[in-house]
Structure formats: structure tokens, C-alpha cells
Design brief:
InterPro entries: Beta_helix, Pec_lyase, Pectin_lyas_fold, Pectin_lyase_fold/virulence, PEL. Keywords: Lyase, Secreted, Signal. It is an enzyme of class 4 (lyase). Its EC number is 4.2.2.10. The longest helix is centred in the N-terminal third of the chain and has 23 residues, at about 1-25. The chain has helices spanning about 1-25, 50-60, 325-330, 335, 375-380; strands spanning about 45, 65-70, 70-75, 80-90, 100, 120-125, 135, 140-145, 150, 155-160, 160-165, 170-175, 180, 185-190, 190-195, 200-205, 210, 215-220, 225, 245, 250-255, 260, 270, 275-280, 280-290, 300, 305-315, 320, 345. It has about 375 residues and is mostly beta strands. The strands form five sheets. A ten-stranded parallel β-sheet has the order 1-2-8-11-15-18-21-24-26-28, with helices on one face. The protein has a nine-stranded parallel β-sheet with strand order 3-9-12-16-19-22-25-27-29, with no helix packed on it. A six-stranded parallel β-sheet has the order 7-10-14-17-20-23. Helix 2 links the parallel strand 1 and strand 2 (about 65-70). It is built from five helices and 29 strands. It is globular and about 60 Å long. It has a domain at about 130-380: Single-stranded right-handed beta-helix, Pectin lyase-like (Pectate Lyase C-like). It binds 2-acetamido-2-deoxy-beta-D-glucopyranose (NAG).
């Protein structure tokens, strides 16, 4: 009798401790801009997966969930390694000091994309890295402090998945030595996705990519895109494949992101995507930040800092408003609800972009606010900051 009372007492105290912890696990804040209204797992109790198998199944199932990562979940080796024929693309003229070879995904090595002078080589890669963990609808995935790390595998929000929040998670080490080694977060055929205070590093392919299907409303806020790599497609220690926003008339807000040590696609835009890029900090980019050369992309860039960015805008075959002057920026008020804010430039090329005919696309939508351009983004973006 006495024994069972003690057992009951200890069960109660364990529960209280768990409940006490749960109260501290929650999505912090709400998104600004296009993904306004996202609720993720909503009021589902937050739970910590026991390991990579449970994390995989909780992300993919059709239950509304709040999934908490309080440590590193390492997928490296969990699906074995693949050895096959890949290539050394023409861009890799730096094998001695770290270039990027390629996996032959989508016939990339043989369809001309790898450039003239491409050679076939053997590639060996971690199989888990090349395909992301499927994420279903109504999920919040959140990290504790700076401890929520997913190593060796990314996330894929697709097949109609809606209403997903990814906050305070570091995704790293997806076969960084290989082009097509893996995408950190891929979204394709989705709606209402908010990626906030995440970090991406040592990724083989895209750090963030919207696929060809409609991804509808997306907000990318306060993330750190860290392009430092020993395997650079541009042979200079910087990652080329940053952010690719194609799709089908997607709406993307990019606010407060710190995008550094990249050399291209930071971001590339296509698929008639409407982008509001506000208060981001683009730092140390040896190639281009925006590439609007895929046609159809529509971009307002305001209140951003470009510091040591060689080419802020590579090409504009869509429409681009680069908030060129206080006088010109007043035009934003009628459609974005505020006069656009000047961008700031240090040791960088010019942004340009004076198209205004598309600004009416913003009318009636939820638009992120704009502050003065500031490098303080470097200390607020990324994991462990909320
Ligand atoms: C997601 O949540 C919404 C609102 O509760 C619900 O209508 C919908 O069926 C859920 N989706 C899935 C796939 O469970």
C-alpha cells in the first residue's frame, strides 16, 4: 500500500515536470507578410521525438503536431551510401583547393548544364541527404535554444501539405561536396509555410527552394543562410546555390534574413513569383544576390543592406523595383501601405530596378512592415536567438 502511494506520488511529479517543460515549448511570435494566418500544429501538445525514425514519422503523418528538437538528429548513414557515376562540371576548375562535383540528378551532368569540358567521375554520397523528410499539413517543428539540429537530411513540404511552421532549427551537412547533394528545405505544391529563425549550412544544393508547383503563401524570416564551404562551385569558399524561388505565382515574403558568404542565387526568382524582400542583410557575396533572369519574377526589394555584394541584381527579365530614391519610393504607398525604404550599399554594385507596373499585385495582401536598412540583422537571424 505504502509502495503504491509513493509510486503515484512520483508519477505525478514527473508529469508536472513534463507539463512544466511543455509550457516553455511553443512557436514564438507570428509571421509577417504573406504567410500571415499560419498556425502549424496549433494547440497540439509539444512532443520530443525519441529518435530519427519517430521524427520522420511524426513529420509525415496526418496528425496536427508540435514537434520539439532538443538535440541533434543525425541522419547521416541512416540510408547507407550510394556510389555511382557523376561528374566534374566545367565550373570545377579548383579540385586541389575545394570545388564542387555533381551527382547526375535530372541528367544534369549530361544535358548541357554541367558545361563544356565536363568529365564523368565516380561519386559516393550519403543517401539520406538527397531526399528530404516529408512534412505533412498542420505541423510546427521547433528547436530548443540552439540545440535543434537536423544533420544529413532536409525537409520537403509538398504534395498539398499546408500550414507548416519551421522555427529555430539548424539544417546542416547535406553532401556539401556535391551539387544535387540535397536541399535543406524544399516546398512544392503547398500553402502557408513559415520558416523562421532557422540556419542552413553546408548544403549540397539549395538552402531553400520552391519547386515548380504552386507554393502559394510563404514567409522566410530571420533565417541565417551561411554559405561558408570548403566545396564551392565558384572556387572561393562560398556557396552558389542559395535560395531559388520558382513555382507558380507564389507569394514570398523574405524579411530579416542574414544571407552571407554566398556567390549566387541569393535569391533566384522565376515562375511569376511575387517577392517582397525587406530588411535582409546580404553580406560577402562574390557573385550575385538577386537573379531575376528566369522571366516572370516580380520583386520589391526595400530596406536591405548589401555589404560586399559584387552584383546585387544579375539580370531582370521579370519586374523589379529596387527602391531607388526617396522620391520614387513613394509609389509603394498605394499598394504596399508604406513608402518603400531605401536599400543600403557598402562596397557593392548597384541594384537598379525601376519597374512599378506590377506593384498593384501587392494590393489587398498582407504586407510586412519595413524598417531602415540595418546590419543588426546579423545578430538577430538564425538559431538560438529567440
Ligand atoms: C489541418 O487542419 C485543418 C484545420 O483544423 C483541417 O481542416 C485539415 O483537415 C487538417 N489537415 C490535415 C491533413 O490533417
Amino acid at each position: 500500500m505504502k509502495f503504491s502511494i509513493l509510486a503515484l506520488g512520483s508519477a505525478i511529479s514527473v508529469n508536472a515536470a513534463v507539463l512544466g517543460q511543455r509550457a516553455t515549448y511553443a512557436v514564438v511570435g507570428k509571421p509577417e507578410g504573406f504567410a500571415t494566418g499560419v498556425t502549424g500544429g496549433g494547440s497540439a501538445a509539444c512532443q520530443i521525438p525519441s529518435g530519427i525514425a519517430q521524427l520522420k514519422s511524426w513529420l509525415a503523418d496526418s496528425t496536427a503536431r508540435c514537434i520539439v528538437l532538443d538535440k541533434e538528429f543525425n541522419f547521416k548513414g541512416s540510408e547507407g551510401t550510394t556510389k555511382e557515376k557523376g561528374c566534374r562540371p566545367a565550373s570545377n576548375k579548383c579540385p586541389g583547393n575545394g570545388g564542387q562535383d555533381a551527382i547526375n540528378k535530372a541528367s544534369w551532368c549530361t544535358n548541357g548544364n554541367a558545361g563544356a569540358g565536363v568529365t564523368t567521375i565516380d561519386v559516393t554520397y550519403d543517401t539520406a541527404g538527397v531526399s528530404g523528410l516529408l512534412v505533412g499539413s498542420n505541423k510546427s517543428l521547433i528547436g530548443v535554444g540552439a540545440k535543434g539540429v537536423i544533420r544529413g537530411k532536409g525537409l520537403r513540404i509538398a504534395n498539398g501539405a499546408k500550414n507548416v511552421i519551421i522555427q529555430n532549427i539548424h539544417i546542416t551537412e547535406l553532401n556539401p561536396q556535391y551539387i544535387w547533394g540535397g536541399d535543406a528545405i524544399a516546398v512544392d505544391g503547398s500553402d502557408l509555410v513559415w520558416v523562421d529563425h532557422c540556419k542552413f549550412s553546408l548544403i549540397g544544393r539549395q538552402m531553400f527552394v520552391l519547386g515548380n508547383g504552386a507554393s502559394n503563401r510563404v514567409t522566410l524570416s530571420n533565417n541565417e543562410f551561411d554559405g561558408n564551404t570548403k566545396w564551392s562551385a565558384t572556387c572561393d569558399g562560398r556557396h552558389y546555390w542559395g535560395i531559388y524561388l520558382t513555382g507558380s505565382s507564389d507569394l514570398v515574403t523574405m524579411k530579416g534574413n542574414y544571407i552571407h558568404h554566398t556567390s549566387g542565387r541569393s535569391p533566384k526568382i522565376g515562375g511569376n513569383t511575387l517577392v517582397h524582400a525587406v530588411n535582409n542583410y546580404f553580406h560577402d557575396n562574390t557573385g550575385h544576390a538577386f537573379d531575376n533572369g528566369a522571366s516572370g519574377g516580380k520583386v520589391v526589394a526595400e530596406g536591405n543592406v548589401f555589404q560586399n555584394v559584387k552584383t546585387p541584381l544579375l539580370e531582370n527579365k521579370g519586374q523589379f523595383f529596387g527602391s531607388p530614391s526617396t522620391g520614387a519610393n513613394a509609389v509603394c504607398s498605394a499598394n504596399l501601405g508604406h513608402a518603400c525604404v531605401l536599400n543600403s550599399f557598402g562596397s557593392s554594385g548597384a541594384l537598379g530596378g525601376t519597374d512599378t507596373g506590377f506593384l498593384s499585385n501587392f494590393k489587398g495582401k498582407t504586407i510586412a512592415k519595413a524598417s531602415a536598412a540595418s546590419t543588426s540583422v546579423a545578430s538577430t537571424a538564425g538559431v538560438g536567438k529567440i
